[in-house]
Amino acid sequence: MKKNGNMAILIKGLLLENPVFVLILGTCPTLATTTTVIGALAMGLAAAAVLICSNVVISLFRKLIPETVRIPCYIVIIAGFVTLVQMFMHAFLPELYDLLGVYLALITVNCIILGRAEMFAGKNSVGKSALDGIGMGLGFTLALLSIAVIREVFGSGSFAGMEIPFLRDHTVDFLVKAPGGMLVYGVMIALVSWLTHGRAPRKKSFSCAGCASAAYCSGSCDGAGVKEEA
Amino acid sequence: MKSYIKSIAVLTLICAAVAVLLSGANAITAPIIEENEAAAAMEALKVVMPEGADFQPVEIGRYALPETVTEVYRAGGGGYVVTLETVGYATGMVILCGVDQNGVVTGAICLSSSETLGYEADYGAAAVGATAETVDGLDVISGATMTTEAYKNAIKDALETALILSSEEAGASGGAGTALSGAAAALGICGLLKGVA
């Protein structure tokens, strides 16, 4: 498969460059919304919709947006789409709107969305940016779902709100608390690393070129600044 | 200089385009959200007064009601649902309490609070059936903590509000009134009323 082919762009977000398990982005909503399967699915799909739309629009206007104001422009576009999703969810899916609470608005500052805008949509065609948005959005949704299934089934003894016989009477309450979420998250990261046999990109694989934070971290990814721990 | 102008112009245009898009979306969704919220509010009223129907808002500015009262709805069949905002351990404890035409609490729920333990969500069940005379004897909301004291006082305020409004309405209609207005007269609560023509 060609490294920059359409299929490679689409599927890289599912496992090899999964935003949650490999790039370790979007940790806050990951831990906060994965206590229930419904909440995780809603958050994943809402973030995916914003990611796809913002990637397409940013890619469409990438040649018009000046380099100096690209981050404010990206944020305004992303915030606009997040507010749209909020409005329509509030009107047509009020229960999910209440379930996600403040984390819906916080999609605006989700690192995955700004990261893809900066590292991909700002440099690639509209079609490829849309595929990247779909792949990363699906990867984010699947990651949240996989954590939520473990936490809800074993922590609450239910699946999507439906109680499971036996498990409902033998719940591991720790899993629905924040430390339990962190534990499951860590185990899933280890599992993905084991499944990919180290083929997932490591920190050194990310170049400082194009990184929004390069000016502030002294080029640690390129090994020029802060030294990586052994 | 030219690049500065271009940067400002592009950012301004993007902001304007997003604002136009959002105003269009708001025009579509705002009426639906308003309808949903009104329906949800009515659902909440039914929770604290299951037998109530046809709830109508009461203009509370006309009466000398307790300070904690923020909204009052009159039930079609008699009785009131009172929204109260009080302060327990923290500010912003919002309680919805239903009082029937006999001055008996039909239900109470805590709509929002920042109390530390979150037990206030269960206090409402303890208040069902309480009257102005028995509210001090409830075990669960004994008033031993700042939260339970605030909750109990809010229930008392709801009962007092129902007495005041019932008495006022009975006076305005010149009728015999309900058991609530009779009790209000006996307790001398009419003296608290503002002079309303």
Would you kindly provide a written description of the structure presented here, covering whatever features stand out?
The complex is a heterodimer of chains A (230) and B (197). In chain A, helix 4 packs across helix 5 (94-100) and helix 4 (70-92) packs across helix 7 (111-121). Chain A has 230 residues and is an all-alpha fold. Chain A has helices at 6-12, 27-32, 37-60, 70-92, 94-100, 102-105, 111-121, 126-155, 178-195; strands at residues 158-159, 162-163. In chain A, a hairpin with a 2-residue loop joins strand 1 and strand 2. The longest helix of chain A is centred in the middle third of the chain and has 30 residues, at 126-155. The model of chain A is unreliable at 225-230 (pLDDT under 50). Chain A has a two-stranded antiparallel sheet. By secondary structure, chain B is of the alpha+beta class. Chain B has a domain at 56-192. Chain B is 45% helix and 15% strand. Chain B is built from four helices and five strands. In chain B, a hairpin with a 6-residue loop joins strand 3 and strand 4 (93-99). Chain B is elongated, with a radius of gyration of 23 Å. Chain B starts with a helix and ends in a 10-residue tail after the last helix. Classes of the chains: A mainly alpha (230), B alpha+beta (197). Chains A and B meet through helix 4 of A and helix 1 of B.
Provide key terms for this protein.
heterodimer, A: 230 residues, mainly alpha, two-stranded antiparallel sheet, 9 helices, disordered C terminus, B: 197 residues, 45% helix, 15% strand
